[in-house]
Amino acid sequence: MTWLRIAAVLTLLLLATAAGASLPAQEAESADSVSPLPDGIDRNEVLAEAARRRSGWKGFDELEYAQMSRLGIRLVRGKHVEFYTDLDESKDVDSIPVVLDEAVNGLALFFGLSPEDYKNWRVEAFLISDREPFEIFGALKRAPDFEHGYSLESRVWIYDQKQAYYNRFLLLHELTHAFMNWTFGDLNPRWYSEGIADYLALHRWDGEKLTLGIFPDSPDEVPGFGRIDRIKKAGRERSRKTLDDVLDFEADDFLDNDSYAWSWSLVTLLFHSPRYARAIGAMPYLMTRSDANRLFTELLGDENPRLNRDWYEWIASIDYAADFSSFARDDPPPRPLTDPVELTLSPKEVGWRSAGIRLEAGKTYLLRAEGRFKVFEKELARALPCEAAGISIRYFAGAPLGQVAATVPQSGARVVNPWKGAVPLRNGVVRLTPDVTGPLFFRFNIPGSAAEKSSGDLVITVSRGD
């Protein structure tokens, strides 16, 4: 099977399961053929090692069920979940066991496993409003102090978040931890385990169907989540994390909620481009390895510089209803600039795109922009006329909405922000003197959700300036 076929099949598997689709067991079991692992790592050996590890789990004391009524704790039993809570009966609360039961099947399929293998798997889940009754009940033995939620072996706990969606989100996050620890034997590296737990816990639930791994269209769809807004705030404060910062996260870093946002952002990016399918698909089987990040980087291979480039584009423009098409787009082979070249650019194409022209370091080039286009503005619900300089009364990602920028990105796997130094254009001539030799890129500063409703073209002429 060729690499292109591997990537395509694995990507379809991941995206289909993330969208809540039901995959036949035989398709789930065929994941071994579409997710190659690094040399020396065998899928069955990893699963066997996980089984050996959980055989050494301490377990928990039996709960004193006779105390429950006196303590105000209720038990709702599901297929996989025993759900305990001190919250009053309600549709949102009492549907949680059904949600978690559905999630177990979804998690098995997502990771290319058969739900049949989990038919006898059981988890105790606790949704807590008042901690004291649960301490008396014995439900918090071996649980450390935690701020929002925690999982250990076959138990998950969360405190009531006063929001039905966020209660489900946190329980799904902790359930994902429990599932992965049971199945794969550990929860390292932390960026991956926390990122994918958030990734899968983002969900839609209509009372009957559960969809895991959604990307939200608006904050109203995922109340309490807030990860996207945290990344935006970091951009405003110029405190964005590098790719290496995220890969190096350790357990203590997750005392800060920002670390969850960065980890979720990275995992989301990896799952939305087929070029990273092999590396992210292998990660569950690397979780017991101390060198998991090194193996991940090796699996990326020649895509390391592209991931670094995509990372900075992603966190600089992150928004609800994101358009991920630029991360799957291949760059055309760049040709040297010998004569002036006229380019027609459309605001419908999101993200940085290569013009297919190679510029030389230290030489000056002239970029002449001409024309007007229209940028859709969500709050006004209409398209606004725009030139290359953008609309100064409306901003997105720290720059005027619709502004067009050009650059030759810095190269290398771990260059700090390859897009730094991009030159904003205006109608008329702008000079560009790149620091490195490489392909010329352009970008419209437009949210991905607005690109489809934008229109028109901008004509840019590129010529030598000497």
Number of helices: 17
The major pleated sheet works out as: 5 strands, mixed
Nearest-angstrom radius of gyration?
25 Å
Structural domain count: 2
Structural class: alpha+beta
Task: Describe the overall structure.
By secondary structure, the protein is of the alpha+beta class. The chain folds into 2 domains: 1-330, no CATH class; 332-464, Jelly Rolls, CATH 2.60.120. It has helices at residues 3-18, 25-29, 43-55, 68-71, 91-94, 96-110, 131-137, 164-184, 190-201, 227-236, 243-247, 257-271, 277-282, 292-300, 304-317, 325-328, 448-451, and strands at 74-77, 81-85, 123-128, 149-152, 155-159, 203-205, 210-212, 335-336, 341-345, 353-359, 365-370, 373-377, 382-386, 391-396, 399-401, 404-407, 423-424, 428-432, 438-444, 455-456, 458-464. It has a 5-stranded mixed beta sheet, with helices on one face. The longest helix is centred in the middle third of the chain and has 21 residues, at 164-184. It is elongated and about 85 Å long. The protein starts with a helix and ends with a strand. Residues 1-34 have low confidence and may be disordered.
